[in-house]
# Entry
Amino acid sequence: MRKADQSGSRPKTVRISRGAKRRGDTRALARGRDVSRAIPWRRIARGLGVAAFCLLIGGTLGAAVKVGWTWVTTSPRFAVKTVVVRTGPKVAEREVRMLAGVKEGDNIFSFRLAGCVEAIEIHPWVKRASVMRELPDRVVIDVVEREARAVIALGALYYVDQDGEVFKKALPGEKLDFPTLTGITLKEVVERAPGVEGLIRQGLELCGLAAKSAILPADEVSEVRLDRTFGAILVRAGDGMRVRFGTGGFSEKWLRMERSLAELGPDAAKVAELDLNYES
# Structure
Protein backbone atom coordinates (compact mmCIF):
# COMPACT_ATOMS: atom_id res chain seq x y z
CA MET A 1 0.00 0.00 0.00
CA ARG A 2 1.13 3.57 -0.47
CA LYS A 3 0.82 6.23 2.22
CA ALA A 4 1.10 9.94 1.27
CA ASP A 5 2.35 12.45 3.83
CA GLN A 6 0.70 15.85 4.31
CA SER A 7 3.61 17.80 2.83
CA GLY A 8 2.79 16.49 -0.58
CA SER A 9 6.08 14.60 -0.99
CA ARG A 10 6.28 11.24 -2.77
CA PRO A 11 4.37 8.44 -1.09
CA LYS A 12 6.42 6.10 1.16
CA THR A 13 6.44 2.40 0.29
CA VAL A 14 5.95 -0.04 3.20
CA ARG A 15 6.58 -3.81 2.91
CA ILE A 16 3.98 -5.94 4.54
CA SER A 17 4.74 -9.61 5.23
CA ARG A 18 1.98 -12.15 4.91
CA GLY A 19 2.36 -12.99 8.58
CA ALA A 20 1.92 -9.36 9.51
CA LYS A 21 -1.22 -9.14 7.46
CA ARG A 22 -2.67 -12.15 9.22
CA ARG A 23 -1.64 -10.94 12.69
CA GLY A 24 -2.58 -7.30 12.07
CA ASP A 25 0.82 -6.07 13.23
CA THR A 26 -0.07 -2.36 12.82
CA ARG A 27 2.88 -1.11 14.85
CA ALA A 28 5.37 -2.73 12.53
CA LEU A 29 3.43 -1.44 9.56
CA ALA A 30 3.37 2.04 11.00
CA ARG A 31 7.16 2.04 11.42
CA GLY A 32 7.66 0.70 7.94
CA ARG A 33 9.76 -2.25 9.23
CA ASP A 34 9.98 -5.52 7.24
CA VAL A 35 8.25 -7.84 9.68
CA SER A 36 9.27 -10.92 7.70
CA ARG A 37 12.85 -10.37 8.88
CA ALA A 38 12.09 -10.06 12.59
CA ILE A 39 14.13 -12.48 14.77
CA PRO A 40 11.92 -14.91 16.75
CA TRP A 41 13.75 -14.55 20.05
CA ARG A 42 11.13 -16.38 22.10
CA ARG A 43 11.25 -19.46 19.91
CA ILE A 44 15.06 -19.43 19.98
CA ALA A 45 15.01 -19.19 23.75
CA ARG A 46 12.59 -22.10 23.99
CA GLY A 47 14.78 -24.15 21.63
CA LEU A 48 17.89 -23.44 23.67
CA GLY A 49 16.06 -24.47 26.80
CA VAL A 50 15.04 -27.81 25.27
CA ALA A 51 18.60 -28.43 24.01
CA ALA A 52 20.03 -27.66 27.44
CA PHE A 53 17.54 -30.04 29.03
CA CYS A 54 18.45 -32.81 26.56
CA LEU A 55 22.16 -32.28 27.25
CA LEU A 56 21.50 -32.48 30.97
CA ILE A 57 19.54 -35.72 30.62
CA GLY A 58 22.13 -37.20 28.23
CA GLY A 59 24.97 -36.32 30.58
CA THR A 60 23.11 -37.82 33.52
CA LEU A 61 22.40 -41.06 31.66
CA GLY A 62 26.00 -41.28 30.47
CA ALA A 63 27.29 -40.87 34.00
CA ALA A 64 24.85 -43.50 35.25
CA VAL A 65 25.97 -45.97 32.56
CA LYS A 66 29.62 -45.36 33.42
CA VAL A 67 28.99 -45.93 37.12
CA GLY A 68 26.99 -49.08 36.37
CA TRP A 69 29.67 -50.49 34.06
CA THR A 70 32.36 -49.79 36.65
CA TRP A 71 30.34 -51.69 39.21
CA VAL A 72 29.68 -54.82 37.11
CA THR A 73 33.33 -55.00 36.01
CA THR A 74 34.66 -54.80 39.57
CA SER A 75 31.97 -56.42 41.69
CA PRO A 76 32.87 -59.78 43.28
CA ARG A 77 29.39 -60.95 42.25
CA PHE A 78 30.64 -61.23 38.66
CA ALA A 79 33.92 -62.99 39.41
CA VAL A 80 34.23 -66.23 37.42
CA LYS A 81 33.81 -69.28 39.64
CA THR A 82 33.50 -72.03 37.01
CA VAL A 83 35.06 -72.50 33.56
CA VAL A 84 33.56 -75.47 31.71
CA VAL A 85 35.56 -76.77 28.73
CA ARG A 86 34.00 -79.34 26.40
CA THR A 87 36.55 -80.64 23.91
CA GLY A 88 37.74 -83.85 22.25
CA PRO A 89 40.78 -86.13 22.39
CA LYS A 90 43.03 -84.01 20.17
CA VAL A 91 42.79 -80.73 22.10
CA ALA A 92 43.47 -80.85 25.84
CA GLU A 93 41.38 -78.82 28.27
CA ARG A 94 44.47 -77.05 29.63
CA GLU A 95 45.36 -75.94 26.08
CA VAL A 96 41.89 -74.48 25.59
CA ARG A 97 42.08 -72.62 28.92
CA MET A 98 45.50 -71.24 28.11
CA LEU A 99 44.48 -70.06 24.65
CA ALA A 100 41.22 -68.52 25.87
CA GLY A 101 42.98 -66.72 28.71
CA VAL A 102 39.95 -67.09 31.00
CA LYS A 103 40.42 -68.34 34.56
CA GLU A 104 38.57 -68.51 37.84
CA GLY A 105 38.59 -65.17 39.64
CA ASP A 106 38.53 -63.05 36.49
CA ASN A 107 35.64 -60.65 36.05
CA ILE A 108 33.18 -62.23 33.64
CA PHE A 109 33.04 -59.01 31.58
CA SER A 110 36.83 -58.50 31.45
CA PHE A 111 37.29 -60.39 28.18
CA ARG A 112 35.84 -60.29 24.64
CA LEU A 113 34.02 -63.44 23.59
CA ALA A 114 35.10 -63.01 19.96
CA GLY A 115 38.70 -62.56 21.05
CA CYS A 116 38.60 -65.80 23.04
CA VAL A 117 37.14 -67.70 20.07
CA GLU A 118 39.81 -66.36 17.72
CA ALA A 119 42.57 -67.37 20.13
CA ILE A 120 41.23 -70.91 20.57
CA GLU A 121 40.80 -71.45 16.83
CA ILE A 122 44.52 -70.84 16.34
CA HIS A 123 45.02 -74.45 17.52
CA PRO A 124 45.43 -76.57 14.35
CA TRP A 125 43.09 -79.33 15.55
CA VAL A 126 40.26 -76.91 16.40
CA LYS A 127 37.64 -76.71 13.65
CA ARG A 128 35.55 -74.13 15.48
CA ALA A 129 34.94 -72.92 19.02
CA SER A 130 32.30 -71.03 20.99
CA VAL A 131 32.55 -69.16 24.29
CA MET A 132 29.49 -68.18 26.32
CA ARG A 133 28.90 -66.27 29.54
CA GLU A 134 26.36 -67.69 31.95
CA LEU A 135 25.77 -64.93 34.46
CA PRO A 136 26.75 -64.24 37.05
CA ASP A 137 29.88 -66.42 37.33
CA ARG A 138 30.10 -69.26 34.78
CA VAL A 139 31.90 -69.50 31.41
CA VAL A 140 31.31 -72.36 28.96
CA ILE A 141 33.75 -73.17 26.13
CA ASP A 142 32.84 -75.68 23.41
CA VAL A 143 35.40 -76.99 20.93
CA VAL A 144 34.68 -78.93 17.73
CA GLU A 145 37.79 -80.79 16.60
CA ARG A 146 38.93 -81.56 13.09
CA GLU A 147 38.79 -85.14 11.90
CA ALA A 148 41.77 -86.24 9.82
CA ARG A 149 40.60 -88.31 6.85
CA ALA A 150 43.80 -88.53 4.84
CA VAL A 151 47.34 -87.22 4.56
CA ILE A 152 48.59 -85.37 1.50
CA ALA A 153 52.16 -85.36 0.20
CA LEU A 154 53.27 -81.75 -0.32
CA GLY A 155 57.01 -82.16 0.10
CA ALA A 156 56.13 -83.23 3.65
CA LEU A 157 52.99 -84.98 4.85
CA TYR A 158 50.03 -82.83 5.93
CA TYR A 159 46.67 -83.79 7.38
CA VAL A 160 43.45 -83.26 5.43
CA ASP A 161 40.23 -82.86 7.43
CA GLN A 162 36.65 -83.95 6.76
CA ASP A 163 35.96 -80.87 4.64
CA GLY A 164 39.02 -81.27 2.44
CA GLU A 165 41.04 -78.58 4.22
CA VAL A 166 44.79 -79.09 4.53
CA PHE A 167 45.34 -77.92 8.09
CA LYS A 168 48.47 -79.28 9.73
CA LYS A 169 51.90 -80.69 9.02
CA ALA A 170 52.30 -84.20 10.40
CA LEU A 171 54.91 -84.40 13.16
CA PRO A 172 57.08 -87.38 14.14
CA GLY A 173 55.12 -89.79 16.28
CA GLU A 174 51.71 -88.65 15.06
CA LYS A 175 49.27 -91.08 13.52
CA LEU A 176 49.81 -91.57 9.78
CA ASP A 177 47.75 -94.67 8.99
CA PHE A 178 45.67 -92.91 6.35
CA PRO A 179 45.70 -93.18 2.56
CA THR A 180 48.12 -90.65 1.05
CA LEU A 181 46.89 -88.17 -1.56
CA THR A 182 49.45 -87.28 -4.24
CA GLY A 183 49.60 -85.27 -7.45
CA ILE A 184 49.14 -81.78 -5.93
CA THR A 185 51.88 -79.31 -4.99
CA LEU A 186 52.17 -77.19 -1.86
CA LYS A 187 52.13 -74.04 -4.02
CA GLU A 188 48.79 -75.07 -5.54
CA VAL A 189 47.28 -75.63 -2.11
CA VAL A 190 48.58 -72.35 -0.65
CA GLU A 191 47.42 -70.35 -3.67
CA ARG A 192 44.13 -72.27 -3.92
CA ALA A 193 44.76 -73.02 -7.56
CA PRO A 194 41.63 -73.72 -9.65
CA GLY A 195 40.52 -77.33 -9.45
CA VAL A 196 42.63 -78.24 -6.42
CA GLU A 197 39.76 -78.35 -3.93
CA GLY A 198 37.76 -80.56 -6.27
CA LEU A 199 40.66 -82.99 -6.65
CA ILE A 200 41.10 -83.23 -2.88
CA ARG A 201 37.38 -83.90 -2.44
CA GLN A 202 37.64 -86.70 -4.98
CA GLY A 203 40.47 -88.24 -3.00
CA LEU A 204 38.49 -87.97 0.25
CA GLU A 205 35.46 -89.59 -1.36
CA LEU A 206 37.54 -92.62 -2.33
CA CYS A 207 39.07 -92.76 1.16
CA GLY A 208 35.57 -92.75 2.61
CA LEU A 209 34.48 -95.62 0.36
CA ALA A 210 37.57 -97.61 1.37
CA ALA A 211 36.80 -97.01 5.06
CA LYS A 212 33.49 -98.88 4.64
CA SER A 213 34.78 -101.62 2.32
CA ALA A 214 35.56 -105.22 3.21
CA ILE A 215 37.09 -105.98 -0.21
CA LEU A 216 39.57 -103.09 -0.32
CA PRO A 217 39.64 -101.47 3.15
CA ALA A 218 41.40 -98.20 3.89
CA ASP A 219 44.39 -99.87 5.52
CA GLU A 220 45.09 -101.61 2.18
CA VAL A 221 45.07 -98.34 0.23
CA SER A 222 48.52 -96.82 0.11
CA GLU A 223 47.93 -93.92 -2.28
CA VAL A 224 45.30 -91.99 -4.18
CA ARG A 225 46.84 -90.19 -7.14
CA LEU A 226 44.98 -87.09 -8.24
CA ASP A 227 45.34 -86.05 -11.85
CA ARG A 228 43.52 -83.25 -13.66
CA THR A 229 43.49 -85.19 -16.93
CA PHE A 230 42.96 -88.81 -15.90
CA GLY A 231 41.18 -88.28 -12.58
CA ALA A 232 41.75 -90.38 -9.48
CA ILE A 233 43.88 -93.51 -9.44
CA LEU A 234 43.85 -95.67 -6.32
CA VAL A 235 46.97 -97.74 -5.51
CA ARG A 236 46.69 -100.87 -3.37
CA ALA A 237 49.34 -101.45 -0.72
CA GLY A 238 51.60 -104.47 -1.08
CA ASP A 239 51.24 -105.38 -4.76
CA GLY A 240 50.75 -101.85 -6.15
CA MET A 241 47.59 -102.68 -8.11
CA ARG A 242 46.15 -99.53 -9.70
CA VAL A 243 42.43 -98.85 -9.97
CA ARG A 244 41.45 -96.05 -12.36
CA PHE A 245 38.32 -94.24 -11.18
CA GLY A 246 38.37 -91.24 -13.50
CA THR A 247 36.59 -88.08 -12.39
CA GLY A 248 33.16 -89.09 -11.09
CA GLY A 249 30.57 -91.72 -10.31
CA PHE A 250 32.81 -93.18 -7.62
CA SER A 251 30.14 -95.02 -5.64
CA GLU A 252 28.93 -97.01 -8.64
CA LYS A 253 32.49 -97.65 -9.81
CA TRP A 254 33.51 -98.84 -6.35
CA LEU A 255 30.75 -101.45 -6.37
CA ARG A 256 31.92 -102.68 -9.79
CA MET A 257 35.47 -102.92 -8.50
CA GLU A 258 34.39 -104.93 -5.46
CA ARG A 259 32.40 -107.33 -7.66
CA SER A 260 35.34 -107.77 -10.02
CA LEU A 261 37.84 -108.48 -7.24
CA ALA A 262 35.42 -110.86 -5.49
CA GLU A 263 34.88 -112.82 -8.73
CA LEU A 264 38.64 -113.09 -9.34
CA GLY A 265 39.20 -114.53 -5.89
CA PRO A 266 42.88 -115.52 -5.36
CA ASP A 267 43.70 -114.39 -8.89
CA ALA A 268 42.95 -110.77 -7.86
CA ALA A 269 46.50 -110.59 -6.53
CA LYS A 270 47.78 -110.99 -10.09
CA VAL A 271 45.88 -107.99 -11.42
CA ALA A 272 48.14 -105.01 -12.16
CA GLU A 273 45.41 -102.53 -13.10
CA LEU A 274 41.64 -102.12 -13.20
CA ASP A 275 40.17 -99.44 -15.43
CA LEU A 276 36.64 -98.52 -14.34
CA ASN A 277 36.16 -95.78 -16.91
CA TYR A 278 33.71 -97.70 -19.03
CA GLU A 279 29.96 -98.21 -19.07
CA SER A 280 28.81 -101.39 -17.34
